[in-house]
Amino acid sequence: MEEERRWEEINTDCLVNIFRRLGLEDLTLAVPFVCQSWYRATLDPTCWRVLKFRRLDFMPWSNLSKEFSNRYGLNGRFSFSCFLKLCVARSHGEAIEVEFPLLFGASIHDLTFISHRCPKLRKATLPILQSEDEPHLPEIIGRWHELEQLEMECKPSSFQELVNNLNPKLNSLKMFGSFKNDDVSVIVNKLPKLKCLCLSKSYMQKDELLSILNGCNSLEELVVRDCVGFEVNEEVLKRVMHSGIKVFEHEGSNLVNEDGYDTDECDPLYVHAL
């Protein structure tokens, strides 16, 4: 009878091909502790090219925090920064995508760290930062010369400088906030390759919307749902029709909010309430 093959004897390349499809929780807490061959396979940088932290629970009382602290001998001193540094070290500079937690854990120091250690990022989903940290964003993002997709929550105070520092080949931008003429101008002039622009839940007037439609010549998808400051009328629809845009989502956008006020407030809690 043919001897049964054992999991730990699987070719390392096959293991790596499997493990690179797993999430960070499995790669840090489960797979490395099965056997030595599986542990060695998880050290391959290709397993750590996509660093998605957003769906993980980094609260001190979470199962992830407790188990990570126990597995790595931290004696309860777990932090998001600790988890981040392990994942980034395993990537050996080969990470191409990072998705930060939205609210809890990540700091400007974490962003600075990953901007130095992960220079090949193509997609970045950034956390909400303290207002005093926002001026550092242009310098941080400017280190990602290959960045193609950027997603943020609220538009930062340093927005125009940030766009000036972006890779001009960026093809996707997503955030919400108050977008005035100068903000739209920098998008149009500095991001000529932009294909997807999502500004849902933002404040923007019709002139700014038309400027985007007239100036972003490569745009294929424009999402402006639940915005305040404009209504999509025949003029806008006609411009969309002649722009080459394939996807135009504008449901819920109005001249005024549901309380009857035309506003350019950029408070995240206010905008999410729309």
Automatic annotation (TrEMBL):
Coiled coil: none annotated. This is F-box/LRR-repeat protein. The lineage of its organism: Eukaryota, Viridiplantae, Streptophyta, Embryophyta, Tracheophyta.
